[in-house]
Amino acid sequence: MAKKRKVMLFLVEGKSEREALEILISNIIKNELVVFQVMEGDITSDINSTPQNIKKIINEKVKFYMTESKVKKSDILSIIHLMDIDGAYIKDEKYMVEDNQVKKGFKYYPSEIHAYSKDKIITRNNKKSGVMNVLSSTNQISAIDYRAYYFCCNLDHILYNEANLESSLKIDYAYDFQDKYFDNEIEFINFMLNSDFTVKGEYKETWDFLKEKINSLGRYSNFHLFFSDFSEYIKDEYNDVL
Fold first, then answer.
1. Where do the structural domains in the chain lie, given as residue ranges?
2. How far, in Å, CA of 96 to CA of 98, rounded?
3. Stretch 91-97: mean pLDDT, rounded?
4. What is the pLDDT of residue 239?
5. For residue 18, how many other CB atoms are within 10 A of its CB?
């Protein structure tokens, strides 16, 4: 009887992340089943998320996936959470700008966050950074291996160098990115491993780096660590790159 494939469960904020990355990562992984579960939003800054309940919230997302897909907990190899940083470690108000042109959400610049009020930025950053501190130091959720990788200040910033990409363009950019690296996955791996945005160091060091100065507004990612953390599951033809 053939060995059952294990699931690598990726938790992502939106459909564009899935479109940009799912096929590429599936082509890089040996035999495991790569699944991108779209959470329809950023749970790290959700109004209902706190450092005290965030692991429970993620566990509920995983249980929902298991029910919908008829997958057992033992079938899940790992939970891989891809998250946007969104300048959340900025505490100094001199980097926060009240901007009446920003009707909702936030705008990100190399040394500034813009929103309609500073209080909105302060509240969001305190909540989100607290939640991310918990998740970045978490190794398991409900006895399933868990790993959090970041795109800073967001995924669009890393993949397309566009920190404030309009929502209407996200899927188009994702398709273009997928087309660029499809059947050229070795270049995708090189892109993540050897770019200016690649944060060197061990896992904890890459997270500590975000808390320094205004780094959480910069263009940085630690997703390259995925390839070493899961090297035993990477297809042999990519070993020379890693």
1. 7-86+124-238
2. 7
3. 97
4. 83
5. 19
